[in-house]
Amino acid sequence: MPADTVISGGTVVTATDTFEADVAIDGGEIAAVGAPDSMPDADETVDASGLLVMPGVIDPHVHVDDMFSIDTHETASAAAALGGVTSYVDFAWQAWEGDLSIFDEAGTLLEGIERKREKAADAHVDYAFHAAITREDPAVLDELADAVEAGVSSFKMFTAYEHGLSNGFMHRVMEELADLDAVGVYHTEDSTITDMLTERFQAEGKGDPTYYPKSRPDYAEAMAAEDAVRMAAETGAKYYGIHTTSRKAAEVIDDFRDDGSQVRAETCTHYTTLTDDVFEEMGNLPMIAPPIRKRDDVEAMFEYLSDGTLDVVSTDHCGYERESKEVENWWDSTFGANALQTSLPVFHDEAVNERGFSYPFVVRVMSRNPARVFGMAGKGTLDPGTDADVVLFDPDETYTVTADDNASNADFSIYEGREVTGRVAKTFVRGELVADDGEVVGDAGRGEFVERDLPDWSV
Ligand SMILES: [Zn+2]
């Protein structure tokens, strides 16, 4: 029986190893990995000589088609395909009423999941959702099991913003999550501190973007993380710390990982590759919450990724235009930046070329770990029988990042002008080519919803 495709002559990278091998794909799945003479005949052969053959990137933290992004799933997923990202996890919001909200009236989690599934129908890559809890209405507790049943096994909570939750309500949710064995995902900043500092800078007319990181200090992040992870430990709930930015917050995660099983965390590409000098260089464009930090915090991200305290590197992709950033005072700017298209090449360049990390390290933090943490059993590896989500990556090609190449609706890049070595050559989603040499190929809508299982964190 011939296979659909054989990727021949490349260097396979797994979470643990790098070796010369061919990869056969059939029916959308990896059929075999091995020596050329062990491969089945194939309808199509893809020459991967000189290229790395890696599992597709899984980005478990993106914002698409809601109040935090002007991207549609079609544009965000085109950026993803070009960036070697074969699955991403967006947010399905429990509708709330407020200044930040796009919703006319309050709604339920399950409605949020249904709404996002419809919006994502045009995606080029596979997608999943975290359900975001935005209101302290106990009725949401009765929805959690149904959300898990619907393939949404993780729940986002914020300690900041108008849709933030009190410790008391988060604690109540955690009790339920512990019973369900589902994952809580936490944005942690102590908003009483960040709000007070913001108001003070506003009163003092400190609207220059260099004041932005001072309004959201690292200790405010660490304090809220400590409360949340402590409650998770006490209630027995799985804890995932989203966008860890600072040494102080990573130390908190480290303290609570001693049990070895219930705490996981991520950082983002920008916290590993940029320092707060960017606010002088680029104004409000790199305003992201929490803020891009100091050189020592960048070092801490790599230390803690290296020792496994941090598991994942995500993007926190938010599609925004310059116009919403280029305002007089930083507090009137949008928060967030696009990165789905640039994350893998920028992180690879920093980690492998600049710091000497291995290719398997990149696969661990960008593919295998997010799949494991979030219950995506068929993804994040090149093991036979799993989905053929594959990136062919040229580790030697050098190019300069520019927003002119953006497939996102966003019209800037926080990596503008950065020269990187390492470029995505081809991206396959379940065996189908979705990006080829810098062009999106094929029709939108081939992406599928990934029904996620409850993850097993004992492995
Ligand atoms: Zn985010």
UniProtKB/TrEMBL annotation:
Family membership: Belongs to the metallo-dependent hydrolases superfamily. Hydantoinase/dihydropyrimidinase family.
PANTHER family named in the record: COLLAPSIN RESPONSE MEDIATOR PROTEIN, HYDRANTOINASE/DIHYDROPYRIMIDINASE FAMILY MEMBER
Domain of life: Archaea
Cofactor dependence: Zn(2+)
GO biological process: pyrimidine nucleotide biosynthetic process
Keyword annotations: Hydrolase, Pyrimidine biosynthesis
GO MF annotations in UniProt: hydrolase activity, acting on carbon-nitrogen (but not peptide) bonds
Flavoprotein among keywords: no
Domain Amidohydrolase-related as annotated: residue spans: 52-434
Annotated organism of origin: Candidatus Halobonum tyrrellensis G22
Pfam families per record: Amidohydro_1
Protein name from the UniProt record: D-hydantoinase
